[in-house]
Every structure is written in C-alpha cells, then in structure tokens.
Amino acid sequence: MFNPFALGVCEQLLILMAKYSQESHITTVEEVKDFFNHIVYDLDINFHPDDDFKNYVSYETGSRTMDDEQAELYNRLMDESFEVCGEDVYEIGSDLLFKRLQLETK
C-alpha cells in the first residue's frame, strides 16, 4: 500500500503540487482562495503574494521548495490571482495566513 508519509519532504511536495499544471488558470475569487489555501495548507508555505516562488526554501532541509518550472507555474498563477482580485489579494492571503497561525498556536 502506498504511504505518502514514507516519502521525503520534496517527494511529498511534488505530489501535492500536482494539483496545478500548465493548463491551470485562476479566473475567479474562489479559485484565488483555493490556490492560496493550497499554498498555505497543502504545501505548508508561509508566502507573500509579491514574492517569487523560486525564493522559497524548506526550513527543515534548506533546499528550494520548488524547481524553476514549478515556481514559474505558481508565479503565473499568482499573477492571475492579482488580475482577478487586484489589491484584495493581500487581504485574502493575510486572512488565510493569520487563520493558519492561530490554529497552530492553540
């Protein structure tokens, strides 16, 4: 039986990142929220909408969280999020991150 927890951090992230592909697009506010939820909860990335995904590293390993191709995809999806929400993207992201941090501190 397949056990994803037997995989290393990088392998687990690759499986989770499969949710989005080059064919994926962000076109609605709900898709923005789903994308951000995926970043925060599935990928466990404490992100800022202005940051390049190429710059994120794992706290545990010190290695990059995404390769160039994955980072470019997530950067494009973030750009599309800005197109959909404009400056509201910051509020959507911060609300989600604050909720996550509060849940982890209880």
Structure in words:
This protein has 106 residues and is mostly helical. Helix content is 56%, strand content 0%. The longest helix is centred in the C-terminal third of the chain and has 18 residues, at 68-85. It starts with 8 loop residues before the first helix and ends with a helix. Residues 1-5 have low confidence and may be disordered.
Could you give a quick summary of the protein structure above?
With 106 residues, this protein is an all-alpha fold. The chain has helices spanning 9-17, 29-42, 68-85, 88-105.
SSE topology:
Layout: H1 9-17, H2 29-42, H3 68-85, H4 88-105
Helix pairs in contact: 2-3, 2-4
Largest sheet: none
Shape: globular
Gap between N and C termini = 33 Å
Task: Please work out how many helical segments DSSP would assign.
Answer: 4
Into which percent range does the helicity of residues fall? 55-70%
Strand segment tally: 0
Compressed to H and E, one letter per element, the order equals HHHH
Low-confidence segments: 1-5
Strand content: under 5%
Summarize this structure as a short list of keywords or feature phrases.
disordered N terminus, mainly alpha, 106 residues
